[in-house]
Each structure stands twice: as C-alpha cells, then as structure tokens.
Amino acid sequence: MPIRTPNDILICFEEEKAKQFIEKVWGLNPTFICVIGNTETAKIPRISAAGKYPELTDYTPAADVELLFYGRCKCIKGVPVTPEGIPTPALITMSAVRVADIPVFVVNAGVKVKPHIPFIEVEGSPGNDIRTGRAVKDSEKIFQRSALLGESFAKISDYLVIGESIPGGTTTALGVLLAMGIDAEGKVSSSMPNNPHDLKLRVVKEGLASTNVDPERLKKDPLVAASAVGDPMMVAFAGLIVGAAKRIPVVMAGGTQMAAVLAIVKGKNSNVLENVVIGTTRWIIDDNTSDLIYLVSQIARVPVLAANLNFSYSKYDGLQMYEKGAVKEGVGAGGATIASILKSKGNITCKTILSDIEKNYERLLSLKH
Amino acid sequence: MPIRTPNDILICFEEEKAKQFIEKVWGLNPTFICVIGNTETAKIPRISAAGKYPELTDYTPAADVELLFYGRCKCIKGVPVTPEGIPTPALITMSAVRVADIPVFVVNAGVKVKPHIPFIEVEGSPGNDIRTGRAVKDSEKIFQRSALLGESFAKISDYLVIGESIPGGTTTALGVLLAMGIDAEGKVSSSMPNNPHDLKLRVVKEGLASTNVDPERLKKDPLVAASAVGDPMMVAFAGLIVGAAKRIPVVMAGGTQMAAVLAIVKGKNSNVLENVVIGTTRWIIDDNTSDLIYLVSQIARVPVLAANLNFSYSKYDGLQMYEKGAVKEGVGAGGATIASILKSKGNITCKTILSDIEKNYERLLSLKH
Asked: Which of A15, A42, A344, B208 fits A167 for a cystine, CB–CB 3.0-4.6 Å?
C-alpha cells in the first residue's frame, strides 16, 4: 500500500525520489546529529543575525545544542536571538525531537565556546574569516574522522537527520559554491529578512582573491575550496554523509548551506548521493531572496522536502516573525520536523510541534525574568 | 524455543538471570562503547603492565582505541605491550567487533594523549595519583554528561557493551571498593601474573589517609569515593550505565574493575541493576590472584558471563602468555567476544575470533619492521 505524503511535508524537487524516500523511512527510527562550528566570518558587521550582536555569535552553536539536551541554555541566559529578539530555530528542533523521542548527538566541528553537554570531537578548530583565504585548518582530518563517525552511526540508525549551527554559514556556503564554479550569486539565504547579498559577495571575492590556490583546483577539490573560503561545519557535515550514506538514507537538514555541503559530498563520493535528501522549511522555499532549488539542481538531482510549518497565528510575536522572513531555518529545524512526522507515521503534525514550541517558548521567556 | 547457551560463553554467577539475558539479546545488535582515561597512579613503579614502561601508559588508551578504528595504532608504533612484550587485549576486541560488524564509539573520560579518531567528550581530566586523596576532578559533571549520553545511545541500540582502557585501573578500583566498605583486599586482578597486592593496598591506604573526607561519606556517596581514590573512567562508565540501563540491557565488559563501577552504579541508581550483566574472560574467572565473583556478590546479584577464549595452542608466544596469567582482560575483550557470539547466534565462536586475532597479530608484527 503506497504511503500518502503527509500534508505537512511539501515536496519541492525530485518528486518521485522524494516519495520513495518517504516510503522507505516511514515509521523508522532516525538519529538526529547536529554539527556545530564557528567562523570569524560571522563577526563581519551585518553578515549574521544568529546572535544579538556579532560577538555573541560565538555562543550561539553551544547554546543551541544545550537547548536540545536540557530544554534550556547553559552557556548563556535565555536563548540565542537575533538582534531583533527573534528566537533561535533550535526551539523548533527541540520540540520536534522531543515529541518524537528522536535521539540527539552533537559533533563539534570547531567551536569557540564548548557546549555543556556530551559532544563528539573530530578535533577541528573554529574557522577563520574567509577574507583571509585560509578559512579552515585540517579539513582532511575533520572530513576523515567525520566519515568514520558516519559509518558507526549508520550501523545503529535506520537513517540520519543531520543539522547544523554555525553563524555566518550562508556566507561561507556562498564562498564554497562560487569557488566550485556554481552559479550562486544572490542565491544563498540569510537569517535576516533583508539578505545582504552584496556584502556577502564582497567578502567571498576578497577571500578568493587572498587564497593562492589555483582556481581550477578550487573547482575540483571540494576540501581545498572549503579550506580556502568555507567553514569547519560543512567539512564535518559532508564527512558524516559520505560515511553514513553508503549504508543508510541521510536527510540533510538545512537551508541553502546544504548546497555547499552537497557540492562537497558530490566531489568526494558521488555514489552516496542516491541516499541523500534535503529537508528544509517552507520559509526557505518561499524565500524570494534566495533559491535553494536552483542551487541544488546545479549540483545533484536529490529530492528537496520542506516542513510546512506556519507560525502566522502563533500567540508569540517572536515566532510570527518567522513568517516575515526572519531566521527561516537552522539547527536542522525543517529536517527534524519532517523526521518527527515520518517517525510517527503522520501522527505528529506541524500543529503538534507548534503547540509544543509555544509551550517551551513561554517557559523560556519566563526563565529570563 | 529456549536458546542453548553457546559453549563458548561460560556462566559464572547468577545462572538463571544470565540465561534470561542471553535469550533477551540473542541475535540483536549491540553497540560497543570503550571508555578511556588515564590516571597518574599507573606511573607508580610496578603497579601497571599496560605499557612497556610507566611513561608509555599515557599512550595505551589512545593506542587501544585507534586499533579498534583502524586496525593499527597511530599515536605509537606497533601496539601497546606489557614490559614482556605481550600485546594489548584490544587485539581481541578488534577482532570480535570486526567479525560481528559491531559499531564502536569511544568516550574520553580524561586522557593525557588523545586518540586520532572521532571520540565523545564529556570534559573530564586525567586522574591524579590516588595517593593525593584527590584523584578525580569534576566527577559530578563527568557522571551527568555520561548519563545523558547513555540515554541517547539507549534509543538507538538494542543493548550496550561497555569496555574500558585505563592503565592502573585495578588499583583505583581497589581504592573505590575499599572506600565504599567492600571487602576487596587481595581480590582485584592485575595485568601481571604476579599481582602486586601489597603495593596496591599501600597506595590505596595512603590515598585514603590523604583525603579529608569523612569515611562514612566515602561509603555512602560513590562519586565522593571516586573523586578521592578512583579514576575518571569509572565515573563515566557508571554514568553511561545509569543513563542507558533504564531502557536497555548493558554488558559491563571487564574484569575486577567492573566491581568498582558496579558499586558506583548501585549507589547512584540501584533500579538499573536488573538490566546489567558483567561480561569478562575465562582468564579473569580462572585467576587465583583475584576474585571477581566474590567482589560482585558483595555488591549486587548481577550475572557474570565469561568468554571461553583459549590461547593455549596459538601460533604466537605473545598470545600464549595470556594462558599464563598475563593481561587477562581489558578494552572490553571478554564482553565484546560474548557480544560477537550472541549477535551471530553462535555462528561466531571463540575459535573464529582467535583465528582473526592471529591474522591481525601477524600483520601488526610485520608492520613494526
């Protein structure tokens, strides 16, 4: 009996493959992995909204995953917010994994502030400002260790859902996409309603000008591209996929950064792409300032699914702002929501999750005082 | 249909419960976790044989788990050996997990030398010499983070097999057992045929004299006992069990150190003990210089199973020495062997594993030259 795609999951690219994926994992048990990292790129003024002000972005990845583990942050008070006070998408992920009892693991690809949780170490370092052209150290090591880790998780998981938290990540994604010859100008997303495309492009061009690597090498070797103008998160993320997707399906949970990860995966082992789908939010798909589908379609014909989350009628202004283009995605919010729906065979819906999010948000707001 | 206990698994304590455990996990998929740590206690002359000389014991845990991941060590040449050149029990574990395709994860409870693999960080530190009476820092943090980790693994594993690598670990085990009021004098094992009981007791007594904690508190609070005269490995190990065994069975894979871990678990949450068994080697059971069963029987009526490994007719002297009381156990060798047999429903035997061990040992010996 074919499974009807739940209404709360939108299929946005490669419909047939997307449906096959849904049938394959229907009711199965995913493992959620969040890859965290920092890049100094996030501190370039007006580049990231993943923190109240640029210096606070150091804390955002750690705070995000603490929220997943404890239902509250430990390394900061309250929760990560944008300069306008809009809360982190980790709120969505937290509710999604909790209502569906999905286990969470965290991989430290290179953070400045370590989370107060058990985390997996691949011994990466925080990324440099990509304008240096030397963004990531030890990318080969990060990639290989993450691939080993992916192999291990593949032995004990029906499928993986991998998300990320790295402020400034869309700029580094743009860096790697352009370095690899993909038409990405004006196509990556932003956590701000006003996407600073010009600024991002200027930063990336400066990085590409600084690196002394031959452009043809940048195009051909994705780890060279990531080392020059990427970030440690995407290297670990790609390693996990290459290790795991040989054996089990993997949901890449994120927005336009997933295009950069996908390009790295394709360059390292294109065979695994048949086991890969992208899971994102409707806010990314509806975003007029970016184009995930166009980016993906240039790289590989992997399905794109989106969680049909709708915060229009939320009681909370902070959540309603998601409908106005703030935040949009992050910490695997969309993919975790999709996995939660699929694991529960559709019993959990976006509405269930929103109601849990509002409960948690209320509790967290009250903690602040 | 009741399952016949395979000949290669000896039941040494609590036969009925042991048989129930075997029936419960028959053919299921375990996850192997190795907890690594260091303690300065290992550098007291003549206390540990887990390294060619005392200073090299810093490298042993890292080298052991590298062997599990890569089939060879990275942080040292060759493999960890005793001063007599007898190879690490990680050789056994490596073969057991490989022939049965059992996934391996490593938890760093506090090592001096980090392994070149992906590992899970609970942010412990290497242990001090227990003669200081201040052996372990942050034991509450190590315990809580490991418990969270155990909960996560319990969601994606049918059962866990947890092993350890920490040179000097039987002395710290003696410390915690005596601190907690268990009759353990002359009962803990050793990696040497001549078990230096007097030396170990002297070291522990010095530690207990140095600590300024009230003896009644040491008895009642296992983390206080471990902080005074234990090691970081046992704290993380106990945390993993307390987190996981609420939900799934756990095999404590080790020798007499497991008695100390068991005492900590009992003191933190005795309810989980019904989901716990000890898996060791015949060499521990046959050891005249120690008494695992007597130790365990004082703490909890948990089953003890032993892998009936026999190296008498091995082609290699280094392996034959196991029959003369060298090494005996470590890196979860016994428990991993049992899990390998159980996962394969008896298709894998101790003989299969020995033949793989000999192949690997031969390859590793040839690498050295």
From this structure: A42
Q: How confident is the model at residue B105 (pLDDT cuts 50, 70, 90)?
A: very high
Q: Out of A31, A69, A148, whose CB is closest to B156?
A: A31
Instruction: State which H helix or E strand residue A267 sits in.
Output: helix A257-269
Least Cα distance to B276 among B291, B294, B307, B254 occurs for: B254
| Contact flag B103-A155 (C-beta cutoff 8 Å) | yes
How far from each other are the two terminal CA atoms of chain B, in whole angstroms? 52
* Residues of A (278-317) whose Cβ lies below 8 Å from B: none
Torsion sign across C-alpha atoms B66, B72, B77, B83: positive
Report the pLDDT averaged over residues B86-115: 98
Q: How many CB pairs under 8 A join A and B?
A: 62
Helix (H) or strand (E) holding B237: helix B232-244
B128 to chain A, closest Cα gap in Å: 22
Tell me if B237 sits within 8 A of B35, measured CB to CB: yes
Q: Return residues 327-366 of A near B (CB < 8 Å).
A: none
β partners of residue A119: B121
Closest by Cβ to B117, choosing from A107, A119, A145:
A145
Q: For residue B108, which residues of chain A lie inside 8 Å, CB to CB?
A: 121
CA–CA gap between residue A279 and residue A160 (Å, rounded): 11
**Cα separation values, B2 from A32, A321, B5, B19, Å:** 37, 60, 9, 9
Please tell me what DSSP assigns to residue B322.
G
Compute and round to an integer the Cα radius of gyration of chain A. Answer: 18
Give me the helix-helix angle, A232-244 and A222-229, nearest 10°: 150
DSSP B22-60: HHHHTT--EEEEEEEE-BGGGGSTTS--SSSSGGGGGTH
Contact B222, B238 (CB under 8 A): yes
pLDDT per position as a tens digit, B133-159: 999 999 999 999 999 999 999 999 999
Asked whether the beta carbons of residue A117 and residue B145 sit closer than 8 angstroms, the reply is: yes
Yes or no: say if B110 and B125 are a contact pair by the CB < 8 Å rule: yes
The dihedral built from the CA positions of residue A168, A174, A175 and A180, taken in this order, carries a sign that is positive
Environment class of B300 (CB within 10 Å of its CB; exposed 0-12, middle 13-18, buried 19+): middle
Q: Which residue has the tokens 């060791």?
A: B280
A99-131 pLDDT, tens digit each? 999 999 999 999 999 999 999 999 999 999 999
Check if B140 contacts A (Cβ < 8 Å): no
- CA pair distance A233, A163, nearest whole angstrom: 10
pLDDT for B354 equals: 97
Our CA-based measurement puts residue B157 at a distance from the nearest CA of chain A, in whole angstroms, of 6
Is pLDDT at B51 greater than 90 in this prediction? no
Among A336, A361, A362, which Cα is nearest to A101's? A336
Name the nearest CA neighbour of A129 among A210, A236, A212.
A210
Which domains does chain A possess?
Answer: 9-363 (3.40.50.10210)
Residues A31 and A161: their CA atoms lie apart, in Å, by 6
Question: Beta strand B159-165 with B250-253: parallel, antiparallel or unpaired?
Answer: parallel
Which residues of chain B are within 8 Å of residue A146 when distances are taken between CB atoms? 118
Q: Regarding beta strands B119-121 and A119-121, do their DSSP bridges make them parallel or antiparallel, or are they unpaired?
A: antiparallel
Token output for B125:
């530190």
Q: Is the dihedral of CA A252, A257, A260, A261 positive or negative?
A: negative
Stretch A280-292: mean pLDDT? 97
CB B39 within 8 A of CB B355: no
Identify the three-state secondary structure at position B251. strand
* Closest to B137 (Cα-Cα) out of B158, B109, B115: B109
ipTM, 2 decimals? 0.96
Q: What is the pLDDT of residue B367?
A: 81
Cβ proximity of A5 and A341 under 8 Å: no
Q: Which residue has the tokens 């499974």?
A: A3
